[in-house]
Amino acid sequence: MFSYDFMQNAFMAGTVVSIVAGIVGTFAVARNYAFLTHTLSEIGFAGAAFGLFAGWPALLGMMVATSGASLAIGALESGYTKRDNVTSAISALAIGLGILFLALGHTSTTAATGILFGSVLGISRQNLLLLIVLAIFVIVTLLINYRSLRQLAFDEAGIFLQSGRQKAVRYIFLVIIALSVSISSQLVGSLLIFVLVTLPAASAKYYATATTRLMGLAVIFALFGTWSGLSLAYLTNLPASFFIAVIEVLIYLVSVWQFQKNA
């Protein structure tokens, strides 16, 4: 299996994506950003479609769209109900725009499928290097702001009382999520981004409470689902995103069952 270049690229890309998704997902789940992550995935679809329409790389279009949308949504952070209503409307608009750009750009079925469901088995070495650069940027940014981001996710009242950086930290966090969504889309596509960004972290919270342990478990769950999914995709010639989604859902269900059993 590893004698093929495309499988080597796929596993390396999957490893990078899983590490980023597991780490960032821990903070997203702690801050109850599952809905926002799902919304950004649909906005990313529109951005990728526009990118192809404009002659850009799909990943660039997705990064611009998700980053811009996350900052705009962040301005509504103070009103949760209003924010949810607005993000729902933006989500619906994004899907419509994505379909429009695909039609106007006469995008091929293969390209459209890659945006929606991922195309990790066809990832090139150049795209892999871009993913690694983006992943390093996300992780370094998170590490630099680790204490503030941890406090924002787990103790927002504390960061509000202790410093005036709350709004800046929120925007940094939203951009990190947006970039993570864009990175993860290369593996599972825009429709299944939440599978890697939220489910591994949601499963990890049933086994640990410390932030570092949560991140570690989330990364392990993400890596297990990704590596297993890629291996099964190679053996069966079926989409890797399908297997990754099924495995991550099973891990989550087992985690919930184990927690309820021991409660």
Automatic annotation (TrEMBL):
The keyword Oxidoreductase does not apply. GO terms for cellular component: ATP-binding cassette (ABC) transporter complex. It is a multi-pass membrane protein. The chain crosses the membrane at residues 6-30, 42-66, 86-107, 128-149, 169-202, 214-234, 240-259. Keywords: Membrane, Transmembrane, Transmembrane helix, Transport. Pfam families: ABC-3. It is found in: Cell membrane; Membrane. The keyword Nucleotidyltransferase does not apply. GO terms for biological process: transmembrane transport. PANTHER family: ABC-TRANSPORTER METAL-BINDING PROTEIN, METAL TRANSPORT SYSTEM MEMBRANE PROTEIN TM_0125-RELATED. Belongs to the ABC-3 integral membrane protein family. This is Metal ABC transporter permease. It comes from Leuconostoc gelidum subsp. gelidum.
